[in-house]
Amino acid sequence: MTSATFPSSPPENHSWNRYFGFNTDAKVIGIQYIVTAFFFFLIGGLLAMIIRGELITPPADLVDRTVYNGIYTMHGTIMLFLFIFPVLNGLNNLLIPTMIGAPDMAFPRLNAVAFWLVPIFGALLIGSFFVPGGPAYSGWWSYPPVSTQNPLGHFINGQGLWITAVALSGVSSIMGAVNFVTTILRMRAPGMGFFRMPVFCWTALAAQSLQLIGLPALTGGAVMLLTDLSFGTSFYQPEGGGDPVLYQHFFWFYSHPAVYVIILPVFGIFSELFPVYSRKPLFGYVYVCLASFIIVALGLVVWVHHMFPSGVAQWMRNFFMFSTMLIAVPTGVKVFAWLGTIWRGKLRLTTPMLFCLGGLFNFVFAGITGIMLATVPVDIHVSNTYFVVGHFHYVIYGAAVMGIFAAIYHWFPKFIGRMPYEGLGKVHFLLTFIGANLNFLPMHPLGLMGMPRRVSSYDPEFAFWNVLASLGAFLLGVSIIPFLLNMVSAWVRGPKAPHNPWNAIGLEWLLPSPPPEDNFGEHVPTVISRPYGYGTGEPLVEHQAEIENQLTLQEASA
Amino acid sequence: MSNSSDRSRPPISSVGLAGLLAWIGVLVVLSWWMAQQSYSWLPVQASTAAPLVDGLFSFETGIGTFVFGAVVSVMAWVLLKHRAEKYDESDAEPIEGNTRLEVIWTVIPLLLVMAIAVYAMRVNTKLGVLGPMEHIHLANPVEDQGGYAADRLPAEQVEVIARQWSWEFRYPSSNVSTTELHLPVDQPVSFRLVSDDVIHGFFIPAFRLKQDVIPGRAINFNLTPTREGRYRLRDSQFSGTWFAANQADVVVESADDYQAWLKNAARQPLQPGISDAVTEYGERKQLKNPGWATVPPAPPPQVNVPGSNTLPHDA
After folding, report:
1. Mind listing the pLDDT tens digit for each residue in B231-249?
2. Is the Cβ pair B212, A309 closer than 8 Å?
3. Which one of B4, B82, B96 would you mutate to disrupt binding with A, by most A Cβ within 10 Å of its Cβ?
4. What is the ipTM, given to two decimal places?
């Protein structure tokens, strides 16, 4: 690691090709993650367009049923394992070291290996489209025995590649989690105790702890599924004395907490951005920090709520209903804290703020349908219907992806060094917000009426809401265009970003835009107060005025 | 927790208070209205379980509407009233928290969700008393692993056999089999759910009931239809290529009609039952490039009465 002069010298003009190689700088890896994730986002989105194209009419008439099943399976898998997890790991890589004043991640090489596994298992997954018989078709849950049927009987088959890719994704995520947790625990700036740490780091720590606890269960479950599929074992095969429901426990023991792995960092983003654009401190900072860990603890004991109709005992139904309900409380604490933050603020409706507000709106809606789903009798009726599809798309797209867009617009100037365009950003927001609601709201009445999820055809009485949903989906498809246009043109020729364009408080805003490779180098400022001191007039770090003056002088002379 | 609760704040004006109360009143009325509306979003109620489930859903819709309305109202108010003036670069008044408020918004939601959970648990228990929800974990622990042994079947149980991709219903005491389920209205009926291949889901939306059918287990499942009509039974657990086409009709009829149907059915010779998958599979084989690999459908079950799955249905 090179030591930087104080203040950090402006970064050398690195060439583009560092993004295509094995680079150990967390800021390069972060951008690698995000760009890779959006590449797969476009593929997953294209598959969603085919799904909604098929479902705009009742009969299965656009693609063959086998093709539909493969496409919906790959849509879910790509969006989760190749878009949302990588894009969040990208944000972790950019934000954690700069927010806590570390020069890099704790294990930079491990970090790069974790990233390079993503294109590898991504290629494996996309490659499964081209093997004989087509890709996996049993849904992203891959419940046996459907997932172990292997119609062609080949050793190399779509489902086998799918399981291998998911297991590799698990390995990559565990590597990432080890790195993030270690970095947060061991590499914070002097003076930055846990209760001076930005909430994003709290939520990242919580989410990555969940990864470490939950992923071994999924990975183990997946390995057993692979041996059942390929080597004739019968962990899950009833004819061999196995139990197909056992897999569901392994799967959901991880895959429900995975929802919190996704949404917790997004809570972190909301908690970072609402104060900046309301010009007020985060309301109840300590409660918000602790709520993340209450969510972690509860999140580990709710998984059976995905299996209420699977054949579980009544006591389990009741127990998991109560535990699921309890999660609403710490989550509610966060929602109310954000409302408390914007209340009597001085709101600036910039693109990131609009995405946060839209995300919060969608998240509250998703929370309410979530409560409905937690209650066993209602869940029995709507589980495995479009009600659930609508619910989790409100969470994942309506809240999480909107939050991720907010984060990208907010921190783009910091890590790219150029300003994104506001006009295009607002168009993007408007199309996304309308598209998401038009796409996902009609799914709720469909589910209540009894339309099962994963169907390639349906009874004519479901046509009306499906047409609306498909139109919303196409709008959502269009909404990505202003985003891509904005990112590419801002990166190439956007106005140069100052070190702190949003007048935000945080260590990352005391670095030049973009920051030098080792961030603060040896001159890590000493943190002397809590984050989000908007309006208090208290500096965040020692000698803050001098650091800021130096940065401003540098920018003026550049 | 540093907070500003001790700071003197301007008390809300009487006009403001009246406005706030009026708005809460509007939200309450709106929530009550949505709770009533929620019944119309659901299919007709055709079993004893349906009114219980719908009542709970309506209650949750009411509460949910109020909470959502309140949160959105606050957001809308802030958006209208608390935006920074143009060129105002200053910060707002720093309010870092308020312990009393934080305790309130922890305790009230806690009480609220616990109340919903207790209500839901009571509905759950009631449904259990009515019979639809007890499966493999029966009172007798010996039966935990495999469900009922075949020789201890209740006499009047309808056997449901799920396959890739057809539903077969057998009435052992009448020696009748069919691919259209017939049930007498207002009489408790007991099913024995089995699967020949993969997991399927036994889901009749009009009954508000659903149970996965697990291969290797026989699952005991009870319900009571309460409304005559023709309803859809849908496969609710993804079961492969023709999952979406794996549907059957459920005919609920008067006891007399049911007995007449059984008597007539018993006289019919066995013939192939309904399997849309088999039909489509045949058509698909003619195609040059049919798509990706599939498990071939099981042959249509041999039944006395195939019935129909194309007649207009009530839900």
Report:
1. 999 999 999 999 999 999 9
2. yes
3. B96
4. 0.93
